[in-house]
Amino acid sequence: MTVLVASDLDRTLIYSTAALALTMPDAAAPRLLCVEVHESRPLSYMTEAAAALLAELTADPGVVFVPTTTRTRKQYQRIRFPGRPARYAICANGGQLLVDGVPDRDWRRQVAARLAEECAPLEEVHGHLLATADPAWLRKARVAEDLFTYLVVERERVPDEWIKSLADWAEDRGWTVSLQGRKVYAVPRPLTKSAAMREVARRTGATTTLAAGDSLLDADLLLAADAAWRPGHGELADCGWTAPTVTALAERGVAAGEEIVRAFTRKAAGAATLAP
């Protein structure tokens, strides 16, 4: 019996300093393990307890751990998780399926064909973002993997009306808008983490799928899994989103990441005991 564990990364499994939410007294704060370095500086963390649990989880031959992220391949490959290296990884919100670190060309061709058929061109959407964003709060504009686009902004200065107008405009063109921290993402609607997760499940013969995520771009992934969890922070928590198979955790910040790995470990062990 194979259990597939597909987890979003940023603000779900790993946390930047700004996202740790260490609200307890300093002496009671958990010990942290740095799992990502960028430009010679530590960037992302897990608690040491979460790292130990993840190493235990990935050591189980019946578990397929699949890091699942909106990050590009290059951004993903900065991360060094404890435990057995993941054979499969989902990047670019489902646009890239990595097998032993190498992009799967057949999957990329399938994705490209569907986007060309169902969505407005990337160039049109990226151009609209640049034309309508205010330079007063726009800091960077990026295109990721020639699949989607995003802006880095000063969040507190971005008008809510602009986000809503952008979302309405994008919806008519087959795209989705998501605000995550300082980033405004515009992503083609068919570009989903769930589709890539189903492909990995097909290839591995997984009989049970588990997932976790914190943003609107993770909702399809959570709904596609047999059981899923979301932390007490993020877009999904802010709008009170849940579903019958999704557990809404009370924990926030890096403590939520630890609880998510703990839930994965319990559920995977439970699935194994039910195997014939």
Automatic annotation (TrEMBL):
One of its GO terms (molecular function) is hydrolase activity. Transmembrane segments: none annotated. Keywords: Hydrolase. InterPro entries: HAD-like_sf, HAD_sf, TPP-like. This is HAD family hydrolase. It comes from Streptomyces toxytricini (Actinomyces toxytricini).
